[in-house]
Amino acid sequence: MTSFGKKSIRHLGTLHGEGTLLVQDGRQLGEITYEIDGYLEHGAKSASGQIQGERQVLESAFRAEDATIVLESGRCIHVVVSNPFGDVTAEIRVTGSFPL
Question: Is 90 helix (H, G, I), strand (E, B) or coil?
């Protein structure tokens, strides 16, 4: 557990692997690798991390404003992708439930 003054944040774990990135209409953009950390802060869960994939895949997900990562297990994680700025890596924030 990490403490910052009166705040305390607990790391719940990390998910990493390969998955498929989809956008709102169910259109498959491509394969990505992901690493997502889950946290608990004052009873509220949050999760964020990074994905790596082809530039055009990440840029399409960013423009869509809402994307889904389908994990190897078949579970889905809804995310918002930050602007990749032409890179092959983008930051993500989980907007739905996180399986940890």
Answer: strand
Q: Is the pLDDT score of 17 beyond 80?
A: yes
Chain-centre distance of CA 5, in angstroms?
28
Nearest CA-CA partner of 53 in 43, 67, 40: 67
How far does CA 41 lie from the centroid of its chain?
18
- How far, CA to CA in Å, does 13 sit from each of 16, 46, 50, 78, 99? 10, 11, 14, 18, 10
For residues 58 and 84, is the Cβ–Cβ distance under 8 A?
Answer: yes
Whether 83 contacts 90, CB under 8 Å: yes
The residue assigned the tokens 């082809």 is: 54
> Could you tell me which residue, 33 or 42, shows the higher pLDDT?
33
Q: Domain segments of the chain: what residues?
A: 11-94
pTM for this prediction? 0.86
Average pLDDT over residues 67-75: 94
Spatial distance between the Cα atoms of 27 and 96, rounded to a whole number of angstroms: 19
